[in-house]
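Thread: Newbie trying to understand structure tokens

Hi all, I'm a second-year student working on a class project, and my supervisor (Dr. K.) asked me to get a predicted structure for one chain before our next meeting. I've only ever worked with sequences, so writing a 3D structure as a token string is new to me. If someone could post the tokens and maybe explain what I'm looking at, I'd be very grateful. Here's the chain:
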Amino acid sequence: MRLIGRLLLGSLGLVLAIPCGAIVLGVGVLIDPASRHAVARLGLEGLIDLASGLSPDVMLMAFAALSQTLLVLLALPPSLVALIGEAIGLRAAAWYGGASGALTALLPWLTRSGSPRAGGQAALAVEGRAVALYFLTGAASGLVYWLVAGLSAGRSEDGRSTEVR
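---
Reply by user tm_fold:
Sure, no problem. This is what the structure looks like when written as tokens:
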């Protein structure tokens, strides 16, 4: 019975954590000047211009790739950290927030195999801001998960800790 309760609580935590990460990412993109400038350059006119020269199949594949990228960026880190935290019975907010934030910030580097980008100091500054934004996105989703489900991880039904000391 305890396992079913933990599964339900963990699922609810992830259902709330993933949209929270999306909100933090969206707000961060709007607040960061470089990201806001890039979104403004693409804007609605840029999307219409881009769409006018592409076939519907290519547009659908581009939308699917963007959706997949956002899913991996927003859902994978808090899910993986929650799974590890539940398996070990961790209840620390630092684990859920820090590990989820670090994993989210590392994802872009892991996907491009750690190779540095060309572009000098300006590109490095923009990438640094993006990494900070990704860290905040992951940390927010990890902390929301911790508030919902992580506080009670590793506890028995009578409320005592089951962690090995």
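A couple of things are worth pointing out once you decode it. The chain is about 80% helix and 0% strand. The radius of gyration is 19 Å. Feel free to ask follow-ups in this thread.
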